[in-house]
Specification:
Two copies of one chain form a homodimer. Chain A is mainly α. Chain A contains nine helices and no strands. Chain A starts with a helix and ends with a helix. The first copy, chain A, binds a DNA duplex through α1 and α3.
DNA sequence: GTCTATACAACGATAGAC
DNA sequence: GTCTATCGTTGTATAGAC
């Protein structure tokens, strides 16, 4: 593995962490430098502008998140339980969703390319959940509505937990939704 | 009405608009000046620091939002329909929630006083929805879970709509949740 | 209370030596 | 590919006249 590649990775990894903790707009290239331990010249060699660094870091974060979520949804279990497994997955509620938080980050929304990457994450996530729900035999449109609601409960759970400073808010929202989901199935 | 009060109001109104459109961290005192038409000296006379201006503007936005939502929840209708009325309320989904978006705004989360105001908004909102749900006779804990889920669906709906650039994502999430809510009631 | 002018740090980015 | 030094701009805030 070349040194080039290694430096690049350290920069991207440092950017991913800082973006997750403080957002893109509130993170400066200088902070990424300090966190990664590389020099200023190196950063601008690998990533000429902040846009380039942001695209690489957000792209990596989106890939990681999608991969691990799709694995949970593909488990060998009844349809409802696979959706419930997604919903009840352990999460750092107070940290917020690494991807979802970017939708109110002006530095992201002002950058068409990065915004597209964030949009694709949610499109694919909702599609994956909808496919699972549709296995139950529910009409496709209804399955998509359920999928949107499920993903929204998680994203909103993050907002509630962060706003109140209480991770229990996320768990309460999930419990409320799962109860409704199961009560329907049990009918 | 004194000129002092009027200048103050124009500053707060301009700050509210800019904060709603671009967030607190991404809005500078200079932009507030330009939008309000007042001079630099005036701003710093009424609000010595950005913190002071932020607290006033966010406080006003929270008050407005809470007041109008509580009115919807107090309508004269069956319990489930009052919750549905809150859920189906017309919203500018692509703009995001003026309050919810602040939970991923670093300038807000770094300011303990402002953060508290945002937290209280959601605490009160969830409490209000939970009280309505509890009128149905559901145990209090279950009512609170439903309320958290309902508010989360809306907040998550904003995230989905903004991420995908499609307001239909919010409507789909709401439809999915309302269907589950009504199916339970109809049992 | 409001104005103009200014201070000082941090921002994103570039220059040019090695 | 990486370094140190520096650029021009904007951020938040202050000074002092009116």
């Amino acid at each position: 593995m070349s040194q080039t590649t290694d430096t690049r990775r350290r920069l991207v990894a440092a950017a991913q962490e800082l973006f997750a903790a403080r957002g893109v707009g509130a993170t400066s290239p200088r902070q990424v430098l300090a966190a990664s331990g590389v020099g200023q010249g190196s950063l601008y060699h690998h990533f000429p502008t902040k846009h380039d660094l942001t695209l690489a870091a957000v792209g990596a974060t989106v890939d990681d998140a999608l991969t691990s979520t799709l694995r949970v949804l593909a488990a060998d279990a009844p349809v409802v339980e696979r959706v419930v497994a997604y919903l009840e997955r352990p999460r750092d509620a107070l940290a917020g969703c690494k991807v979802g938080r970017l939708t109110s980050d002006q530095a992201v929304m002002d950058d068409a390319e990065v915004r597209t990457v964030v949009g694709l994450y949610f499109t694919r996530l909702v599609d994956a959940v909808a496919r699972v729900v549709a296995e139950s035999g529910l009409p496709v449109d209804d399955a998509r509505d359920r999928a949107h609601a499920a993903v929204a409960v998680i994203q909103g759970g993050y907002v509630l937990a962060r706003a109140t400073g209480d991770p229990e808010a996320m768990r309460s929202a999930v419990r409320g939704f799962v109860t409704l989901l199961r009560s329907e199935t049990a009918r």
